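ok new one. same drill as before - structure tokens go in, u give me an amino acid for every spot. 308 of them this time. try not to just spam alanines like last time pls lmao
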């Protein structure tokens, strides 16, 4: 999400044996491990990666191409019999419902997404001890966050040798503020992470998806009743209509698979597993044009488009 996160740098020269170097290295390792303890564990199968602008640019090219292909396939469906057209509409609605339901399941979760993260560290060595004698420890420090678009679902704080002076907002609010000071003559730290659930992040998207799902289910019910009615009236010689059935099946396959490509390109994020598949296939590693070509080849193979 482009937010700054606390970082620590460590010199990994394993051949260095100087006492000062080893002491600083071990101290940094300890600090890194302390930061890690406040992090929420990531479940790989539910982890997501935000698409970069370069990724979205390539996606836009592939999306436009496949939307045009979908339009062409739908035009080809007009040449089929009425009952075949309705059958294709039924299957297309089922495919679209499957994609929307999967999208809802992916977004409607309690998995946490970090909104804000900040860390305060202040050490007390010999000089710091002297400074504390003159009141340095009484200095107040603050952290604050505000965003009108998202509500904070969880505030997680890890601290040591810190006295909280004032705190407001937080969970259930769209802002958070804290004021604190370090205890005199003690090394202290204050580490805060504010998070929201994916359900909160995609609240508007979920509302639109559920509305779309209702509309698709309504269309499916109507087309299903129409197909049953037509199937009972139209007399069809299935033994002599093999080529027509094959054509219908190819068109249905194209609609389903082209639709999956468009659904992939319309998303703003990738699951970690799909991201790794793309990385291993060398996608998104060149300019926009080559990225689009690589992405199209990857998706064609993934969804079996080459076989239709």
């Amino acid at each position: 999400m482009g937010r700054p996160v606390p970082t620590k740098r460590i010199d990994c020269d394993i051949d260095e044996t100087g006492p000062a170097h080893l002491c600083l290295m071990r101290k940094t390792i300890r600090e890194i491990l302390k930061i890690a303890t406040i992090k929420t564990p990531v479940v790989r199968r539910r982890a997501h990666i935000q698409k970069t602008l370069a990724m979205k640019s390539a996606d836009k090219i592939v999306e436009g191409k496949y939307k045009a292909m979908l339009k062409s396939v739908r035009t080809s469906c007009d040449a089929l019999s009425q009952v075949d057209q309705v059958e294709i509409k039924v299957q297309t609605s089922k495919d679209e419902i499957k994609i929307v339901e999967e999208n809802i399941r992916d977004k409607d979760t309690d998995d946490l997404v970090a909104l804000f993260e900040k860390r305060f560290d202040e050490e007390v060595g010999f000089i710091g001890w002297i400074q504390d004698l003159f009141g340095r420890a009484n200095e107040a420090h603050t952290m604050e966050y505000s965003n009108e678009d998202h509500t904070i679902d969880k505030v997680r704080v890890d601290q040591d040798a810190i006295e909280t002076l004032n705190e407001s907002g937080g969970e259930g609010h769209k802002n958070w503020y804290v004021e604190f000071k370090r205890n005199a003559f003690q090394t202290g730290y204050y580490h805060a992470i504010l998070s929201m659930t994916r359900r909160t992040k995609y609240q508007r998207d979920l509302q639109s998806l559920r509305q779309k799902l209702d509309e698709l289910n309504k269309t499916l019910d109507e087309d299903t009743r129409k197909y049953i009615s037509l199937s009972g009236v139209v007399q069809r010689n299935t033994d002599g209509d093999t080529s027509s059935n094959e054509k219908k099946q190819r068109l249905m396959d194209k609609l389903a698979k082209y639709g999956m490509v468009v659904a992939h390109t319309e998303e703003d994020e990738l699951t970690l597993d799909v991201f790794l598949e793309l990385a291993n296939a060398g996608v998104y590693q060149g300019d926009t044009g080559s990225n689009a070509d690589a992405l199209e080849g990857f998706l064609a193979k993934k969804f079996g488009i080459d076989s239709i």
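The beta strands are 48-50, 112-122, 141-146, 154-160, 162-169, 175-182, 188-197, 269-271. and btw The first strand starts at residue 48 and ends at 50.
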